[in-house]
Structure formats: C-alpha cells, structure tokens
Specification:
single chain; alpha/beta; Rossmann fold; 6-stranded parallel sheet; 6 strands; 17% strand
Length: 189
C-alpha cells in the first residue's frame, strides 16, 4: 500500500477531428504540446502512477474512447498524429465525458476516491474551457491540482494565457512547466 495520497495524470480532450470553429488552430497547438504530454505521461508510467484519459464523447453515446481514437487515426492530419503519439496504453484508464469538466457526470470522482488519489495533474485541451472547468471542479472537491503551462493549449495564445491567469490568480493553482513535477506532487503507486 502507498504511504500517502496518490497522484494521477488526467489527459483531457486530446482526441478530436477539430472540425469546429477555431479547430485548426487548436489542432496546431495540440501538436506543439504533444511531446510535453508524452514526456509527462512517461514519467507517470515509469512511477506506475495512474494515467486517465478523459475525452468529450461528441454526443456519440454508444462509442468508447478507443473507438474515438480509431476514428481520429482514419481522419488523417493532426487528429491522426495526436492519436499516433498519445493513444492510451492498455494500462491507462479511459473515461468519456459529456460536458466540459472531466469530473462532471462521470464516474471519475468515485474512481479517484477509491484509488486514494488526492493530487491531479491536468494536461490537454483547452486551457480556457475543459482544463479550466476540470480544475475548478477538482479544486472544489478538495483535490490538489497542478496544470503544467506547457502541457495545455487553447484555440489562441490569448485564450491560453487568459485560462492560465484564472488558474494561477483566481484558483491559486500552480501552472509551472511540466518538467517541474518532481517535488511538486507525490507521484507514487
């Protein structure tokens, strides 16, 4: 058994066809942060810590995350490249979400409680929307949250900076770079 509260990495909304207003810009930015997310995820994997992929279901109530990733692979372009680089490994947990927050109307709060996870690191898309909503709800639930500024992105740099500003100043959530995870949160099994 672990010595204290555990930490999990929540990878949010990376898998998309980006077929919406501002989607192409978000796709470009997602590709820019993908190496940072991959490195962060590798550190969690190496520590045998939980990695949880939470993604919009886009109204497809009978699909699962693996089906969505497969669709992205067939889409080509940024969607396929993100699926190639960051598809969940077999041991990663997967959850679809119907709204902005990965914690709203999903089994994720129960999963975190049962696994004694008190610290969450959020990575993915979009800083000003789903990352912010998840961070706010996690904060309200008493979880310790960290959002690495170089592992999240938004449709524009201005929206990204605005989201980070609210996280830092409104919620007092650390937003230092992804390589700074050592010592910030306990990554343990």
């Amino acid at each position: 058994m672990n010595a204290g509260p555990r930490c999990a990495l929540l990878v949010i909304d990376l898998f998309s066809t980006f077929a919406f207003s501002g989607g192409p810009g978000l796709a470009r930015r997602a590709l820019q942060i993908a190496p940072n997310i991959a490195a962060l995820r590798a550190r969690f994997d190496q520590a045998h810590a939980d990695v949880i992929h939470a993604n919009d279901n886009f109204g497809h109530w009978q699909d699962d995350l693996d089906t969505l990733v497969g669709h992205c692979r067939k889409q080509g372009g940024a969607a396929a490249e993100l699926a190639r680089q960051l598809s969940p490994a077999d041991h990663h947990l997967r959850r679809l979400k119907p709204r902005h927050s990965a914690l709203h109307a999903t089994p994720l709060p129960v999963l975190l409680e049962q696994r004694q996870i008190r610290h969450v690191v959020l990575a993915g898309l979009a800083t000003d929307a789903c990352i912010l909503a998840t961070a706010m709800e996690a904060n309200m639930r008493g979880l310790h949250v960290w959002v690495p500024s170089d592992a999240v992105a938004a449709r524009t740099d201005a929206l990204h900076q605005a989201g980070l500003h609210i996280l830092r100043h409104g919620l007092q959530i650390p937003t230092i770079a992804s390589h700074s995870v050592q010592g910030l949160f306990p990554i343990q099994t």
